[in-house]
């Protein structure tokens, strides 16, 4: 990839543009190295310059650096405040403040809220840990925070750089969408980069920030979650697995805390089980998905390359990138079988919701027989509402709807679209 070129990530740029000068702090969240800093310091900065904003009116500070770039203590909030205000020369001009990985600065809330109180200052911060989860933003920024969640590259973004779609899928489904990978020319570099991210960035950060005492346990827990993506589980079951397979004694309460730490670092997300007809959530068992399929594969040393699970994880991430909230659907029903009433519980891979939109989605890597087809459709046919029902298959097919109104589409077609009306 030409270093002078970059993927513009239009969807995120548009979110920043429409929030420009709106009086709120723009909080860009996501895992480390997913492109948050680049989004601000290059993509959005270039946009502002094109709009006529003076370079002197864009002030950028990176709190994740340990070099001598600055002539003041970058981790001293008082020194940071003095530096920023010394750069603001004219009260009649707008200034744009970019504060990268702001959680590294103690007492940052007061600094950010103070800056945001000025009508001519527009504040943007990035963060990669739980302090920037949406349920905390309202408190931290006094109700004046607006979160923009950033993910690694989507498959559609990835295809901007690799135009052969089959080659793009082979690379993406193996190494994922961390932006830095586009600068590497061989697989050894890609593998080393992803594995170093886990050991030297992600796990070290989680351990340090949460004062984790058992580093080996949380490391093996991360591996266990990667190994079981898309499978129903709970902390007690994971604790039993770690004890039986890894010979590691750990209680379910600790496992639950460690999972929270990994989710709060934006490394995994959980999908809850939702009773479609009863309109309620089940309290036990969830499915976990890795935020990036390349990170998942790297954690497993690229040994578990199950195409069905990889496809399911990529579909989940795609829906989340598009802004959908995603649950695992459960459809309960009573049926007559051999003259007797029986109770059944069928699963829909994804119930995707965004505002008034809802989709029921099945991930079916291959429908190789009529029996398999009936199996994939069984849960969808039990849903009586009018929301669209979709089956995504791993093959390239011409999209069509069957006699029941269920929409069938190929994987690539699904991943390259924003909606499926």
Automatic annotation (TrEMBL):
Give the GO molecular function terms: ATP binding
Query: What is an example of a Pfam family matching this protein?
Result: DUF4143
Q: Which Gene3D superfamilies match?
A: P-loop containing nucleotide triphosphate hydrolases (3.40.50.300)
Where's the DUF4143 domain?
204-363
Q: List the InterPro entries.
A: AAA_14, DUF4143, P-loop_NTPase
ATP-binding among the record's keywords? yes
Indicate whether ATP-binding appears among the record's keywords: yes
Q: Which UniProt keywords apply?
A: ATP-binding, Nucleotide-binding
Question: Which residues belong to any copy of the AAA domain?
Answer: 24-159
Protein name per the record: ATP-binding protein
The source organism is: Marseilla massiliensis
